[in-house]
Task: inverse folding
């Protein structure tokens, strides 16, 4: 028998209330805004799916509606050129959107993207028990596997760490952990990883690069993977990453 959810109550938002009801509210709870009009047939088709998605999440996402005819400045502000136009706000910014009367599955995917899953909550908890449960819930997620492997490395459980990243060889961070374990077992660059564990990332990268010229080919490949794995942790566009990628290329070629 399907779950019974409370009747959805979408907020009717205007130009006068948008800042408070959407922008400010989105700093504490995600807000999905439906730009619609009374004459729009596809809008009426989409509305039940939006309301059902909001109700199913029981307060974790708020649905708001903007009549574009009555609020043309808002529609122009957010580049609405066709309706229905649905925009999801979090932390005062648009983080997801679609246009048109899309299938229910796409509506659900948008709402899911706004609400942390159980695995996300466990990943945020960060202890090994939570991470193991998260990996069981979503075994394909490399970020969870990597976090679990790092936690196991902290207690010296290398075999368990390798088991955590098994099957994630295509992920740079996961491959970097596997390479690190292979290198330390071979007695290569152990000081670099000790330095890395102390939070001295750039010094660790320097030492990994310094080990490359005298290494044989298989070891050089492991060192490369280890360096790339460390760089994968940096934010996109970080200048440190760009600098070390250039140095890595020079060391290899």
Result:
């Amino acid at each position: 028998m399907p779950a019974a959810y409370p009747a959805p109550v979408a907020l009717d938002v205007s130009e006068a209330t948008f800042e408070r009801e959407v922008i400010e509210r989105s700093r504490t709870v995600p807000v999905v805004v439906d730009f619609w009009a009374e004459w729009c047939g596809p809008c009426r088709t989409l509305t039940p799916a939006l309301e059902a998605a909001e109700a199913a999440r029981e307060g974790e996402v708020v649905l708001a509606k903007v009549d574009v005819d009555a609020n043309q400045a808002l529609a122009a502000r957010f580049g609405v050129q066709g309706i229905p136009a649905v925009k999801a706000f979090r932390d005062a910014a648009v983080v997801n959107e679609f246009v048109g009367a899309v299938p229910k599955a796409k509506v659900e995917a948008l709402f899911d993207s706004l609400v942390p899953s159980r695995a996300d909550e466990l990943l945020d908890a960060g202890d090994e028990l939570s991470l193991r449960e998260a990996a069981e819930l979503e075994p394909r997620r490399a970020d969870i596997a990597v976090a679990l492997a790092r936690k196991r490395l902290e207690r010296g459980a290398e075999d368990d760490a390798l088991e955590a990243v098994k099957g994630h060889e295509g992920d740079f961070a996961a491959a970097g952990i596997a390479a690190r374990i292979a290198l330390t077992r071979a007695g290569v660059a152990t000081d670099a990883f000790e330095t890395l564990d102390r939070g001295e990332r750039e010094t660790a990268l320097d030492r990994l690069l310094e080990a490359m010229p005298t290494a044989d080919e298989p070891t050089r490949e492991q060192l490369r993977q280890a360096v790339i794995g460390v760089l994968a942790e940096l934010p996109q566009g970080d200048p440190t990453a760009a600098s070390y990628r250039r140095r890595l290329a020079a060391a290899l070629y």
